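Chain A, query sequence.
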Amino acid sequence: MAEFKFSVDASQIMLFARSVGDKNPIYHDAEYAKGTEPGGIVASPTFVQASAQYDPKFALRPVIGKPWLGSGKEATGLKPKEKKEGDDKKKGGGGDSARMLHAEQQYIYHKPIRPGDELTVTTKRGKSWEKEGRRGGTMSFAEVITEFRDQNGDLAVTAISVGVTTGKAVTQS
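Chain A, predicted structure.
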């Protein structure tokens, strides 16, 4: 079970809303937000996804001074590993990443996240199951459950992510 903390401030809420193109003033205008049902600025529904940048173990988070496997071809300093003869045959084409995908994301909202909240993020494994696929063999599904609790220990958001790994890489026909 992984756990980390992060503080929420109004500028983070505003910047996240801007990054996803949400212009709702409840995410940035304190005067407007006072007159709404929540009574103040609140975080947008998927704001908790930004918490990954605070997780010291998040694989896609850059670490200053270390090579990072980011989205650029080689700008991060990590060069792709050289393939050895027969690598594609052993792993069915593209290796494990060709067999894995994010299948589903669900959020359960218990209370609004507000500026000033200190969130504790706890991640644990959920259910797992298998299903026979038509082209990729047996598919293995696994849930990851992430709970976001405020400074009082109250549950604010539960995020449930489902990943799937196919039995073999599916190649285009």
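Strands lie at 2-7, 100-109, 118-132, 138-149, 155-165. The helical segments are 10-19, 30-34, 87-91.
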